[in-house]
Specification:
alpha/beta; Rossmann fold; 2 domains; five-stranded parallel beta sheet; 6 helices
Length: about 190
């Protein structure tokens, strides 16, 4: 039996992530989605919320489970007896980054392989950053995320706008800024 780990922040999980997860689940006997607990970036959702949203998005995959983890991804893979780390590639920059990390992981854990799946063409441009930026500006994200995730995002951004967000979860300091790559500054 080959167990694979598909790690990420998944803030939020979008259709590109789901596509990679579905394809990996069809290749490997078991797929474990690893939701990274403490990334060095600002989050829209806390770890428990991200795990719950991933569960909603991937509940249809029978050979898929979800864990949260801290520390090195390769240590998580070793800890769950995964022989493979799955990553999605959108472009050359992703390839360069993932190959560098993959080689470092191989030095630390020679028995853990890296499997990179090319993004499907309809999702090659998509990132969680773009999804959050468009949603934060009240744009339509329905083509990019599942309805439950879109609803959770709309609620979170409304909480932020009206000051009703839970402390420490979605206060302005922990949320990705909504003015960025897709906004023009006049």
């Amino acid at each position: 039996m080959i167990r694979a780990l598909y790690p990420g922040t998944f803030d939020p999980m979008h259709n590109g992530h789901i596509d990679i997860a579905q394809r990996a689940a069809s290749i490997f006997d078991e797929l474990v989605i690893g939701v990274y607990d403490a990334p060095p970036k600002k989050l829209l959702f806390n770890t428990e919320e991200r795990v719950a949203l991933v569960r909603l998005a991937l509940g249809h995959l029978k050979n898929c489970s979800i864990v949260s983890f801290e520390g090195l991804t390769v240590e998580c893979a070793l800890g769950i007896d995964a022989r493979v780390i799955v990553r999605g590639l959108r472009n050359v920059a992703d390839f360069e980054f993932e190959s560098q990390i993959g080689l470092a992981n191989r030095q630390m854990a020679p028995d853990v392989e890296l499997c990179c799946l090319l993004s499907s063409t309809e999702y090659i441009y998509l990132s969680s950053t773009i999804v959050k930026e468009v949603a934060g500006l009240d744009g339509d994200i329905s083509a990019w995320v599942r309805p439950e995730i879109a609803a959770a995002m709309q609620q979170r951004f409304a909480e932020n706008r009206f000051g009703t967000a839970k402390a420490g979860v979605a206060d302005p300091k922990s949320v990705t800024k909504t003015r960025g790559k897709l906004t023009h500054y006049g």
